[in-house]
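Pair request: fold both.
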Amino acid sequence: MSDIVKVFVSYSHQDAEYLDKNSLHGFLQGLEKDGVEFWTDRRIRPGELWDEVIKANLQDAHIALVLVSQAFLDSPYCQNVEIERCLARQTHLFPVILSACDWRRHAWLSSRQFLPGGDRTAEEDYTEPGRRKRLFLEIREGLRERVEWVRRSTDKVGGVKADSTLPKSLPGPARIKLCQRLGEDWVNLAVYFGIPPDRQRGFTPGRECQDILVWLEERDQMDQFRKG
C-alpha cells in the first residue's frame, strides 16, 4: 500500500513494557497490514545519534501515539522535544492514559479527548486480562479511525490535499459561551451528531461540551456544527 501513515510512539522508558509483543504495541501491530508504520526508539541502531534520529522521525510522523504516565509528563525530553515538536507541526496526537498522573495541568492534554476517558487509567481500571484486551481493542479501533482521517486528508506522497482543510475550531470566547449555555443538554447534541455511546461514556464529567467539540474537530466536522 502506497498510502503509508506513520505513527510515532512517544513514551517514557519507565513504561517500556507497553512496547512488548504481549502488550499494547503488540496488539496494535496488526494495523501494519492496513498501511500503518509504527516507529519507536527501539529501532535506533548502534552508532546512530539518537537525538537526531528521533527528531527526524518526529518530522515524518502523521500521528503520535502518546503513552501518558507521570514519568512521561515529568520527562523534559518527552515534553520539550517530542510534544513541542508535535504541537508545532500539528501532528495528530492520540493520547492513552496509562496510570494516575496530573494530566489536567498540561493544556495540550486536558484539551483533547483521550483513552480510556474520564478519570480511568489502563493500570487502575483494566487490571483483569480480559478488560485490558478490551481496552487495547478500543485503542486499536480509535487509532484506525484516526489513520483513515489522516489518509483522507493527505495525498499519496504525504502532502495535504489541495481541496482539504485542517479542522476548524470555534474561537475561545464562542466556545466558552456555548458550553455555558449548553449545560446538561450536551446529551442531545451528542446524539444529534451521532457520537457513539462508548465515546460519550469516555467524556470527562463537567467537560462534555468541550469533548464534543474536540470530537467534531478531529473529524473536520465543525462546519456541520456551524450549519446546524
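--- second member of the pair ---
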Amino acid sequence: MKKFFAFALVLAMVASLCAFTASAEDYTIRIYSNSNSPERAEWLIRAAKEAGFTLKMDDNSVYSGDTGAVQAANEGKDGDIIFGLNETRWTQLVNGDYQNIKIADWTPSWADEVGNYKYPGKAYGLVVQNVLMLYRNDELGTKGEALRFTHWADMVNSGYKWYRQGKVGGTTNANINSAMLYPFADPTSPAGGVSIEGWKTLWKYCAEGNFTGDSYGLEPLIRGDVQVSTFYSSSLYSNIDAAADAGTYANPLKGTIAPENWNVVDIDDGTFYIAEYLGVVDREGRTEAQTEIVKAFAEWFGSAEVQTAWAEEFDSFPCNEVAQKNVYGDDIPNIYALKNFALNEIEGSGMKYADYVVSHSAEWTNIMTNLGFYWKDNAAAPAEPDWDNLDWATLTQKAE
C-alpha cells in the first residue's frame, strides 16, 4: 500500500485553528462511536488534542458495535458527535427514530468531496466498508481451484469448509447476514421479507459452518482451519501482513494487494457495502459557542488531510475522494472495486437493498434470536426449526 502521508498530516489544519484553540480546549466534546477500538480511540484523542480539541470517547471495553454506540448515546443524552455506524443506523438517526438523539443541521466545507456518501445537511461519509468472502487456494485450501459463486449463499453448497460467526449482534455480522440473505429478499414473505428458503440456507450456514471462538473469520483462514471465510475490508491487508511477519503461523496467508496463496471469491452479485458517517448531535443545553467548537472538530476530523492520516493508520478506505487519491493514487485495491448490491433495487419493494435491510433489520434480529441462530457450541446446537409450521408473526417480534 502506498504511504504518502504520516501522522504529521493530522496537524495540517492546526495553523488555521490556532485562533480557535484556546476556547476549544475549554469544552470537552463527547463522542459516541462503534469505530472505537482502543487504538482508534487513543489515536483520535491524541490527534485532536494536538489540533486544540479535548475529547471524551469510550473504547470498546465500555461498549461495542453500532447498536451499543447508539443506545449509549440515547441513554447518556450528553453526546456532541456520533461517527461510524452504517446506513441502517444513520437513516434512523436522521429520521429522528431515537428519543434523545437529534442530528443537527451541518454542512462541512468538504461536503462535495464525499460523493454520494452523505445525508445532505446532516451527516457525511468517513469510511467505506464492505464484507468480503476469502479463500485459500494453496494445499490447505482449494488446491489451485478458483472459486466463483453467483450468490454469497452458494458458500453452503461449495463442498469446502467455511467459518461462520458465533453471535447475532455486531455490525460486521449483520453485514454478513445481509450478504447471505440478499438473493432471498421477498417483499411478500411474512418471514421478515425473506423467503423461507433463505432462512433454511442461513441455518445451514450456521449448522455446517465452523466457529472456533475467533472474533471474525480471518484468523481461522490464516491458520488453515478452513478453506473459505469472511472478513471486513478495513484492516484486511494490514492483518495479513502482520500475520505473515509474526512468524507464529506455519502457513500464513501471503501477499496483500497481490495475493500469493489466497484470493477473494468471485461472486457475481458483488458485495454488501456500507459507509460510516459523521454527524453533529443537537445537544440540549450546549451554548452556541460550544456548538461551534463541536462543528469545528467535525470539520477537522472529516477533512481530506485527517482522513488521509486515519486511512493510513488503520488501513481503511476513505469516502473523501481527495483522501482516496492521497492514499492510493490511481491504484484502488480490488476489494474496493467490487460491485455493490446494496444499491440494487429489490423488485416489488421500491427500495434499494440497503434501505430494504434497514426496514427489516429488527425483524431479522428477532427471528435469529428467537430461533437460536449462531450458537457457540455445535455440540449443544438447537434442533433445526420445523420450517413449515412456524409462527412468523411472533418470531419477527422481540421475545418478551
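Observation on the second member. The longest strand covers residues 123-136.
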